[in-house]
Amino acid sequence: xxxxxxxxxxxxxxxxxxxxxxxxxxxxxxxxxxxxxxxxxxxxxxxxxxxxxxxxxxxxxxxxxxxxxxxxxxxxxxxxxxxxxxxxxxxxxxxxxxxxxxxxxxxxxxxxxxxxxxxxxxxxxxxxxxxxxxxxxxxxxxxxxxxxxxxxxxxxxxxxxxxxxxx
Length: 167
Known about the structure:
Layout: E1 8-18, E2 23-28, E3 40-43, E4 46-55, E5 60-64, H1 70-74, E6 80-84, H2 98-101, E7 105-108, E8 113-121, E9 128-133, E10 136-141, E11 147-151, E12 156-159
Parallel strand pairs: 7-12
Antiparallel strand pairs: 1-2, 1-6, 2-5, 3-4, 4-5, 7-8, 8-9, 9-10, 11-12
């Protein structure tokens, strides 16, 4: 799988090719407005314009200018669609981009070091933070009862351990 370049944020990931004219099946990693027609994205160090988008609740298919065959589309498998961080708009207080959370240290309010955020999973009710630490991977629901504070400048998340959370 490709890496996201320094100063860039992944807004989608190529899952595969669709059809014979170079359309891609995409996993959206950001709100769909980041994958809209006319937007420019960088894929494998090349900038492309999105020329067509088709989406429903579960699947996003799009066409990139310059990717015109199934073979070209297949060659982009697992690649990230990236935009410069400077293109991002500021989010309201208490909301964060996924890339901002990755790598943050996680500590309980009683002082236990739990590890670092290695992934953010989307679930119907709330996001789930994957924390990798001394006890292995722990799944932490991103809900107010558990997540007490996120401090990007300090590089940490404070959580309240509720019964059954670390079982």
